[in-house]
Amino acid sequence: MRKSTRSYIRSAIKLKWSVIALLSVGSLFFFACTPDGPVIEDWDEYIADYKSWQEQRLDRLKTETGWMNLAGLFWLREGENSIGSDTSNSIIFPEKFEEHAGVITLRDSLVHFNPVTGIEVLSDGEAFQPGLLYHDQQENTTQISMGSFRWYIIKRGERYGIRLRDLEHPRLEELDHIPSYPFKKEWVVVADYMKYDTLRTLKVPTVIEDFFEEYEVPGEMVFKWKGKKQTLLPFKSRSGFFLIVGDASNGVDTYGAGRFMYAGPLVNGKVILDFNRAYNPPCAFSPFATCPIPPLENILDISIDAGEKAVHLE
């Protein structure tokens, strides 16, 4: 994690002290919300589902589209960008990559790739012909395959970059589990959901300096922890609500730039927040991800000793 990001979280927590998320939880289980908290019909089944979710988390991280195989993030400059493992290239890929693979041209927000003749370059299983590359913010993103490598163009703000994957990355074997706190029932809490009259938009900082992502905020979630009111801003999600949460454990036991959560379903104006399922963002597993970090409004002045812990990889 970048030092500036860690400092942001710590400074934000101190500020709040001084002035004062992949799966929908509950969809498989009947629950009722009472003043004392959620009533889960079968805790054994609920916890078994949580453990299954943990195993699936690790499996997904290691899939071809997971985060463990990221091998590079290279920002393009306007004009021609030669790529390959030889140091004479303007963008230098890992050693086992082709020495000279071709030229990527960025001009007027369009990206073209002209591969070197004689090397195998595939897209959707077919030979790639020199032409336009569609980035990850467009439909039909162009995926390039070259040996064990996969790459495509990402767009962040006005910047364009190459996201490189290596399906044989040694990191895939390095991670055999995700450190986590033991499951704790007390961290399955009920929040009151207060819907806004109109949908609001929030600019959320990312690990990329001066680049923000915009999220739609439909309301607030309010709950009490040890008698103290806590408020979170959820973002709209297909499966309920998505949250980016920071707390006092960040940078100590948990990842320094906060964690992600999903919450739902909404029942009679209340929603379950299962902090046992607070999980690490992609940047906890690779320096080549471009993650959002908790907005100031979602940095809590409590220590959430539940969910995934920090991962220490070489």
Task: Report on this structure.
The chain is mainly beta and 314 residues long. The protein has 2 domains: 3-64 and 177-298, no CATH class; 70-168, Tumour Suppressor Smad4. The chain has 3 helices and 21 strands. It has a 5-stranded mixed β-sheet, with no helix packed on it. The protein has a 5-stranded antiparallel β-sheet with strand order 16-15-14-21-20, with no helix packed on it. The longest helix has 19 residues, at 43-61. The chain is elongated. The two termini are 12 Å apart.
Describe this structure in a few short sentences.
The protein has helices spanning 3-19, 43-61, 171-174; strands at 31-34, 37-40, 70-75, 79-84, 91-92, 102-107, 110-115, 122-123, 126-127, 131-133, 144-146, 149-156, 159-166, 188-205, 212-225, 228-232, 235-237, 240-245, 259-263, 266-267, 270-274.
